[in-house]
Each structure stands twice: as structure tokens, then as C-alpha cells.
Amino acid sequence: MNTADRAPPALPPLYQWAAPPGWRCIDFISDLHLSAALPRTVNAWAAHLLNTPADAVLMLGDLFEVWVGDDQRERPYERSCIDVMAEAASRRTIGFMHGNRDFLLGQTMLNACGLLALPDPTMLDAWGQRVLLTHGDALCIDDVEYQRFRATARTPAWQRAFLALPLAERLRQAGAARAASQQRKDTAGFDPDLWADVDPAAAVAWMHATGCTELIHGHTHRPGSETLTPGHARHVLSDWDLDHGEGRAEVLRLTRDGLKRVAPATAR
Ligand code: MN
Q1: In angstroms, what is the span from residue 259 Cα to ligand 1's centroid?
Q2: Which of 24, 31, 110, 145 suits a disulfide with 62, CB 3.0-4.6 Å?
Q3: Cα(99) to centroid of ligand 1, in Å?
Q4: Per residue in 4-39, pLDDT tens?
Q5: What is the whole-number distance in angstroms between the Cα of residue 126 and the centre of ligand 1?
Q6: How far apart, in whole angstroms, are the C-alpha atoms of residue 234 and residue 217?
Q7: Is residue 218 included in any domain, yes or no?
Q8: Pairwise CA distance, residues 203 & 126, whole Å
Q9: Ion ligand 1 contact residues with beta carbon within 5 A
Q10: For the chain, what is the domain count?
């Protein structure tokens, strides 16, 4: 591998957000990959947003399997998701950070849902705990091909050109890209342990630069917590899928006492 391609990403301009001191609890979820094909998953997500005891639910990317522009919100499935978020946002703060699947979710959709936009990365200060929040894809620097695509697709010029295409064509292109990516994995003999992961040194560099002791990210679908270096812990969020196999869904919850993993809230 050409090491020049693997330069650690510079820390983007940092967005800092302090949780109101009266809050008691903040939930983090990510990688729900919601689509009409996952009815149980969307129901569990809706029940959690509406019934959690948390003051805020922060969704750290890949909420939707695909998002190719805010005109997608007019489709029936997406409209039902908007209704859920708008109702939840009337009760508590619902935050949204872009993932690699839904980075085109825009201000129109944020407004329709009442979502708080969280730039990637965001530094959360809650009860004196400094937590760095990121989707995680920017730190997966071993995935050189993806990083090239990401750099291009995050430019205003690329987004203007793509969003000018008809919705059906954007959906077609997104589907083709996912199929090609799946085929690469299948051909390579998919091994979760070889799947690109957050680069530990790059993660620690971001944490060091921001004075954060905890890093929370999704994207890799390998939930777990570990110490990267002394004083720098990372917590990987669970993906959600309750429509296949045994199913999995998990919430990472922050309180004054720290982080713990809990099951999603269910309808009361
Ligand atoms: Mn992702």
C-alpha cells in the first residue's frame, strides 16, 4: 500500500456541544440502515425514540440504508420515518450525524424531522465528561478506495451534479454502487476481522487534539469497548437488524456515571 495514500485525516473544524446540566441521560445509536425491507427494525427504532427515558437520542450515521437527496422524503416509507422523528423531537432532542449511506441528508430533511444537526466530529461535553462523536468512516484510512470516493462525494460540485439527476437515477446509481461493494466483499471472501477498521493512531490523535477521553463511533458494525491507549477509550456502536437471524439492536447510554449498553426501549 502506498503510505502517502494513508495519511491520517486532519481533524476537521470541531463542533462543540455542551449538554444542559439538568439532563440525566443521553442515548447513542447508529447504523440502523433503515429501509422498507426492515419492518421490525424500524418499529424497534420508532419505539425507542418515542419511549426512551433519555433527554436526547443522538443518531451517529447510517440511519438510512440509502439517502440520495431530500426529495426522497416524499416516498411513503420515508414519510413514515419523518413522522416518527418529528413526534420524538417534540419530546426530546433528536440529533443526527451523517454516515456514509446518508451523507446527502440535507437541511430540508433536518427541518422536516426537527433534528439537531451534529457535524462529524462533534465534541460533547456532558457533566464534565468530554466525549468525541464521529460516524467513524473518516478514520478508516486503510480503505483507500473508499476514502477517495468520500473526498470526492463530499465536495459541493459533486453533490450539485449528483443531486441534479432524477431521483430514480440517483437511486439506481446508489444501488449499483452497493452491489459492486458487496461483490468485492464476496469475491474477497468476507472476513469481519479484515474489514476496514478505525485506525487506532488516527483516533487517538483526534482524541488528544480535542482533550476527549472517550470516542464513540459506529460504521464498523463491531460493537465493543476497548482502551486504545491509557486515558483514551473507544466505544463502537451496534448496528441494528431485527429482521434477520437472531437480530441485534443496542443503545449506548451516557449518564453522570459513565457509559453502559442497554436494550432499546419498548412501547409502554
Ligand atoms: Mn457507515
Answers
A1: 22
A2: 31
A3: 5
A4: 456 667 777 778 999 999 999 999 999 999 999 999
A5: 25
A6: 8
A7: yes
A8: 20
A9: 62, 99-100, 219
A10: 1
Q: Indicate the length of the chain as a whole number.
A: 268
For residue 141, what are the contacts with CB-CB under 8 A and spacing of at least 6? 6, 7, 8, 9, 147, 199, 202
Answer yes or no: are the C-beta atoms of 113 and 82 closer than 8 Å. Answer: yes
Place of cell 486515558: 231
Q: Report pLDDT digits (tens) over 111-166.
A: 999 999 999 999 999 999 999 999 999 999 988 888 999 999 999 999 999 999 99
Give residue 21 CA to ligand 1 midpoint distance, Å: 31
User: For residue 104, what are the domain limits?
Assistant: 13-256
- If you average pLDDT over every residue of the chain, what do you get? 92
**Residue at 191: amino acid letter:** D
**117: in domain:** yes
Q: Do β-strands 56-59 and 214-217 pair in parallel, antiparallel, or remain unpaired?
A: unpaired
pLDDT of residue 190: 54
Coil, helix or strand for 72?
helix
Looking at the domain assignment, is residue 203 inside a domain? yes
Query: Which CATH number does the domain housing residue 115 bear?
Result: 3.60.21.10
Instruction: Kindly report the pTM of this predicted structure.
Output: 0.93
Beta bridge partners of 259: 254
Distance CA(125)–CA(179), nearest Å, equals 39
Termini Cα distance of the chain: 53
Rg (CA), the chain: 18
Measured in Å, residue 105 CA sits from the centre of ligand 1 at 14
Q: Is 116 helix (H, G, I), strand (E, B) or coil?
A: strand
Q: Would residue 266 count as lying in a domain?
A: no
Of the pLDDT bands very low, low, confident and very high (cuts 50, 70, 90), residue 2 is: very low
Q: For residue 92, which of 16, 33, 18, 24 has the smallest C-alpha distance? A: 24
Cβ distance 250 to 261 under 8 Å? yes
